[in-house]
Amino acid sequence: MKKMLGSILLFISLVHSAYAYVGFDVCNYGNEKVNSVLCYGPAVLMGTTIQGNVKVAGSLNATHVTMGAMEIIGTVEINDATINGDVEITGSLNATKTVFKGNIKLITADAQFKSS
């Protein structure tokens, strides 16, 4: 009985630790379609299509992406992208070959738009 109880406690602690940091690590998305992105940490999007919103508390590095609205607190590097919704960024922005179809709200001292 003690052995079984010990095994159960070990299992519960492992499950708890496995889910303790969900969303608090690097979020990596490749060439795939997702409904939305919510990340508490750095996010990397490469060739990703996001049908809904992207919310990141951390840096965002995105290349060859299409997305809905975007809300970021952190540094944003975005290349060859289409953003169909509104954009709100608190932090720096470097956009290259990016189409912004909605409103843009920036709280920053550094924003660069190249062929955007």
Describe this structure in words.
By secondary structure, this protein is an alpha/beta fold. It has one domain (22-114). The chain has one helix at 2-19; strands at 27-29, 33-34, 37-39, 43-46, 49-50, 54-57, 60-63, 66-67, 70-73, 76-83, 87-90, 93-100, 104-107, 111-114. Strands 1, 4, 7, 8, 10, 12 and 14 form a 7-stranded parallel sheet that branches. The chain is globular, with a radius of gyration of 18 Å. 21% of the residues are buried.
Question: How would you summarize what this structure contains?
Answer:
The chain is of the alpha/beta class. The chain has one helix and 14 strands. It has one domain (22-114).
The ordered string of helix (H) and strand (E) elements is HEEEEEEEEEEEEEE
Assign the structural class, choosing from mainly alpha, mainly beta, alpha/beta, alpha+beta, or little secondary structure: alpha/beta
Uncertain runs are 1-22
Radius of gyration: 18 Å
Q: How many individual helices?
A: 1
- Can you tell me the overall shape? globular
**Tally of extended strands?**
14
Mean of residue pLDDT?
83
Beta-sheet strand percentage? over 45%
**Total domains, how many?**
1
Oligomer: single chain
Helix content: 10-25%
